[in-house]
Amino acid sequence: IIVMMSSSSSSMQQFLILARSVHGAATVDLVKKVIEYPDIFNFEELLRMENIDELQKYEEYVPVYHTLELFAYGIYSDYETNRSKYIQLSAEAKRKLQLLTVASLAVRSRTISYSILLNELKIDTVRELEDLIIEAIYYDIIQGKLDQLNNHLDIEYCISRDIDSRQRYDHLIKVLDNWCQNCLQILTELKQQTLKANQRKQQSIIEHEKFEKLLEKQQKQIKLDNNENILSTLLSNNRRGDGMTQEKHLRKKS
């Protein structure tokens, strides 16, 4: 799946400019407009603004801040399971959150079954689901194909959602920790392999020395045997020569 980074729209830039000068109830109205706005799908820039961050300091505005977080990082089922945490959403805002949920699901899997989509989006009919998917394709949130025969959605690419910086750092720490553990394991295995290689090398040297000594011993034995054979042959020839000489001498006397 190709995940396309979604750049800030010109519409969001306008809201960011407005957010610098609004406070209190005016900030609440701005947040409501942003989450309903058709072509805005990333909200982290707005969340990071000082005026928006101040909403957390006032109990009456905390649900507004949580709602903006929901649109930045959450999915529709988060809203359905804990509605008291958020402000009441308009029909347009609910639709937007469903579209964002499709993007989140698309990141996780190249193929999404209708049953999963119906459950996550809390939609009752396949017709409504397909209308929502077509809308997501129209807004370029995803690109894909409806497989009506097999009841699933094939994803080609999707926009990227905002990533909670806290989760990002936790994830980064986890990735680095896993990397360190893998490095340690590899280092341990390399040490073990090096030790085994050195042991094999040492054993090979010992066996080679034994072979050299055995070869030298055999060569000496062969040389000794050859010398003994030569000496034996010479002695045998000498005896034979002496015998022939004596025989000739006896013949002359006779």
TrEMBL record:
The lineage of its organism: Eukaryota, Metazoa, Spiralia, Gnathifera, Rotifera. Keywords: Coiled coil, Cytoplasm, Nucleus, Signalosome. One of its GO terms (biological process) is COP9 signalosome assembly. Its main location: cytoplasm. Residues 201-228 form a coiled coil. InterPro entries: COPS7/eIF3m, CSN7_helixI, PCI_dom. This is PCI domain-containing protein. Pfam families: CSN7_HB_subdom, CSN7a_helixI, PCI. It comes from Didymodactylos carnosus. It comes from the Eukaryota. SMART domains: PINT. It is found in: Cytoplasm; Nucleus. Residues 1-160 form the PCI domain. One of its GO terms (cellular component) is COP9 signalosome. Belongs to the CSN7/EIF3M family. CSN7 subfamily.
